[in-house]
């Protein structure tokens, strides 16, 4: 990462916006697909082992940014803590007007309205029955769009 930023800097780049990774343990595709136990869930329904990995990564990224600021004194480096912003939205979803912090708007079936075999907008046959990954009626009350991406309503808050 640092090498790439330095290459851009030495090529003339001076302004950098770097954001960390979000709470992946709160993404429906992680909650649905990767193993975790009930005891590994936090009070918001997120899988703590995956969020801990994200936090470890973010700590190392922030250390790299601090070093880059020293190594590249003419660079303007903005670091954005997207983890805190996204986790804050999930933990305060109701206060922000959302009803579903962990369910997908566009998907099919299961606890999180997510099925890896039935993507948003796709039609497939499962157990002899054709099913479709459909959009919800009101995306503005969902934090997550399709298991991986956030809804426009969420992104509006993130950018605010």
TrEMBL record:
MF-aspect GO terms: hydrolase activity, acting on ester bonds
Q: Which keywords label this protein?
A: Glycoprotein
TM ranges are: none
Question: Does this UniProt record's set of keywords contain RNA-binding?
Answer: no
Q: Which is an annotated Pfam family here? A: Lipase_GDSL
Under the heading InterPro entries, the entry gives: GDSL, SGNH_hydro_sf
**PANTHER family, A to Z:** ALPHA-L-FUCOSIDASE 3, ZINC FINGER FYVE DOMAIN CONTAINING PROTEIN
Q: What is this protein called?
A: GDSL esterase/lipase
Provenance organism: Pinus mugo
């Amino acid at each position: 990462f640092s090498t790439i930023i330095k290459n851009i800097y030495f090529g003339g780049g001076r302004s950098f916006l770097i954001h960390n990774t979000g709470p992946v343990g709160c993404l429906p595709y992680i909650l649905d697909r990767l193993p975790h136990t009930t005891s590994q869930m936090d009070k918001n329904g997120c899988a703590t082992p995956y969020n801990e990995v994200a936090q470890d990564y973010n700590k190392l990224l922030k250390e790299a940014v601090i070093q880059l600021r020293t190594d590249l004194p003419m660079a303007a480096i903005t670091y954005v803590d997207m983890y805190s912003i996204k986790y804050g939205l999930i933990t305060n979803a109701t206060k922000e007007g959302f009803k579903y912090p962990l369910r997908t708007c566009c998907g099919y079936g299961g606890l999180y309205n997510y099925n890896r075999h039935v993507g948003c907008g796709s039609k497939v046959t499962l157990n002899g029955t054709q099913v479709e990954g459909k959009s919800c009626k009101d995306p503005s009350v969902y934090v997550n769009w399709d298991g991986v991406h956030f809804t426009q309503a969420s992104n509006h808050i993130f950018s605010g």
